[in-house]
C-alpha cells in the first residue's frame, strides 16, 4: 500500500520529466527548466541516480574562465520503446531509448499472413531485430495500422488485404509474445502525432492519409481527437461529389487504381498514374475526379471542424501536389475561409513509425512519473524506494 505523494516526490518527478524530454543537459539547465532550487534539483538527481535513471554524460566546453559542467543523461539501461507502422504494403519499425534517440530502424515489404498469430510473431521478430543493440527492457509498443482503432485494442475498417486483423485479435496476439504493454492506433493518428510533436504551434488541424485506404485524423488545441464509436473518422464513406463514387474509392490507392483502370489507363500500379505517360483524355478524367474528391474532403472538415491546416500524407501525396493549385482555386470559390493545405514529405513506413514512437514515449513517461509518485511506502515515510517500473 502506498502513501500520498509528498512535495519531494513531485519535485523528483518534475526533474525526471525534464530529463526525459531534454537530456543530456547540465544541472544549471535542469534548474532553469524545472524552476526548482539548486539544492532540490541536486537531491532529486542523486535519488534518480540511485534508482538507475541518471548517469553523467560528459563535460561541456568552456571557452573562457569558469568550471566545466557535467551533463546529466539517461542511461541506455533505462529501457527502450518500439513504434510500428504496419501497412498493407510496407512495415516499418523504429526503436528508440526513453529519450527518443534512435537505436535502429528498418522498413520491409509487409508479409502476406493468413493467420493473426503468424503476423504477430513476424512483427515481434522485426522488433527484436531493430532492438538488437538496445539496452534495458522494452517498455512500450505502439503499432499504427491502416484502419480506425478504438480503445487502443480494436481495429475497424482495415484495408481489404488486412481484414484478418479486424477486431482485437492482433492486439492480444502481440501482447502474448512480449513482456511489454501494447497499444494499437490508426496510421493517420500516428502521422498527425508526428507533425504535432515537431511543431508545438499547431492548434487545430486535420490530416488525410491517402494510401491503401483513406484514413483521417484531427486535433483540437494540439490534442488528438478520439471518438467513442467505430464511426469516428470514417470519412471515406461520404460521397466524393464525383459521379457515384465515395471518397474512399477516389482517395485510396486501391480505389483510385480501379477507377483509373475502368477509364482505360493501363496501370500496373497506382504510381504509374503520375510516373508514366498516358493518353491525355482518360488521365484528365481521373485527375478531375480526384480533384473533386480532394475539394469535397477538405470542404467537409473545413465547415465541421474549422481547422487551421489540413495535411495530406501517404502514397497518393505526389498526385495531391499535382492537383493542389486547382483545389485551392475551387475552395476559394466555395468557402469563406480556406484552411492551409499542406502535403507532407512522408517516408513510407518510417514517418508513421516515428509518430508511433512519440506515442510510446508519452505513455512510458507518464507511467514512470506515476511510479515515482507511488514509490514511497507508508512504513518508510522518510525514504524513497526505487520506482517499480
UniProtKB/TrEMBL annotation:
InterPro entries: ATPase_NBD, HTH_MarR-typ, ROK, WH-like_DNA-bd_sf, WH_DNA-bd_sf
Signal peptide region: none
Domain HTH marR-type intervals: 12-55
An annotated Gene Ontology molecular function: DNA-binding transcription factor activity
Pfam families in alphabetical order: MarR_2 (PF12802), ROK (PF00480)
Domain of life from the UniProt record: Bacteria
Family statement: Belongs to the ROK (NagC/XylR) family.
PANTHER family in UniProt: BIFUNCTIONAL UDP-N-ACETYLGLUCOSAMINE 2-EPIMERASE_N-ACETYLMANNOSAMINE KINASE, ROK (REPRESSOR, ORF, KINASE) FAMILY
Protein's name in the database: HTH marR-type domain-containing protein
Upper lineage: Bacteria, Bacillati, Actinomycetota, Actinomycetes, Kitasatosporales
Amino acid at each position: 500500500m502506498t502513501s500520498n505523494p509528498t512535495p519531494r516526490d513531485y519535485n523528483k518527478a518534475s526533474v525526471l520529466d525534464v530529463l526525459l524530454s531534454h537530456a543530456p543537459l547540465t544541472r544549471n539547465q535542469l534548474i532553469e527548466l524545472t524552476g526548482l532550487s539548486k539544492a532540490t534539483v541536486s537531491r532529486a538527481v542523486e535519488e534518480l541516480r540511485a534508482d538507475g535513471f541518471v548517469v553523467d554524460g560528459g563535460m561541456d566546453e568552456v571557452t573562457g574562465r569558469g568550471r566545466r559542467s557535467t551533463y546529466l543523461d539517461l542511461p541506455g539501461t533505462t529501457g527502450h520503446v518500439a513504434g510500428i507502422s504496419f501497412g498493407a504494403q510496407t512495415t516499418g519499425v523504429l526503436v528508440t531509448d526513453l529519450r527518443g534517440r534512435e537505436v535502429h530502424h528498418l522498413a520491409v515489404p509487409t508479409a502476406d499472413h493468413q493467420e493473426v498469430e503468424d503476423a504477430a510473431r513476424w512483427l515481434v521478430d522485426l522488433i527484436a531485430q531493430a532492438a538488437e543493440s538496445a539496452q534495458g527492457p522494452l517498455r512500450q509498443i505502439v503499432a499504427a495500422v491502416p484502419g480506425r482503432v478504438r480503445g487502443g485494442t480494436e481495429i475497424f475498417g482495415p484495408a481489404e488485404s488486412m481484414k484478418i486483423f479486424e477486431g482485437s485479435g492482433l492486439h492480444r496476439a502481440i501482447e502474448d509474445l512480449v513482456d511489454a504493454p501494447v497499444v494499437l492506433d490508426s496510421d493517420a493518428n500516428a502521422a498527425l502525432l508526428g507533425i504535432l510533436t515537431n511543431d508545438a504551434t499547431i492548434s487545430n488541424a486535420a490530416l488525410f492519409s491517402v494510401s491503401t485506404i483513406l484514413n483521417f485524423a484531427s486535433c483540437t488545441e494540439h490534442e488528438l481527437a478520439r471518438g467513442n464509436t467505430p464511426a469516428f473518422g470514417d470519412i471515406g464513406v461520404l460521397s466524393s461529389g464525383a459521379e457515384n463514387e465515395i471518397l474512399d474509392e477516389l482517395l485510396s490507392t486501391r480505389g483510385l487504381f480501379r477507377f483509373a483502370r475502368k477509364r482505360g489507363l493501363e496501370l500496373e500500379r497506382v504510381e504509374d498514374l503520375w510516373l508514366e505517360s498516358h493518353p491525355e483524355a482518360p488521365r484528365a478524367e481521373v485527375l478531375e475526379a480526384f480533384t473533386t474528391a480532394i475539394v469535397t474532403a477538405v470542404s467537409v472538415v473545413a465547415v465541421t471542424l474549422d481547422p487551421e491546416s489540413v495535411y495530406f500524407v501517404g502514397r497518393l501525396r505526389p498526385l495531391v501536389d499535382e492537383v493542389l493549385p486547382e483545389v485551392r482555386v475551387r475552395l476559394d470559390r466555395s468557402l469563406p475561409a480556406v484552411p492551409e493545405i499542406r502535403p507532407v514529405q512522408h517516408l513510407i513506413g518510417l514517418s508513421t513509425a516515428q509518430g508511433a514512437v512519440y506515442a510510446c514515449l508519452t505513455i512510458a513517461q507518464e507511467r514512470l512519473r506515476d511510479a515515482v509518485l507511488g514509490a514511497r511506502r507508508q512504513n518508510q515515510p522518510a525514504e524513497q524506494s526505487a520506482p517499480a517500473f
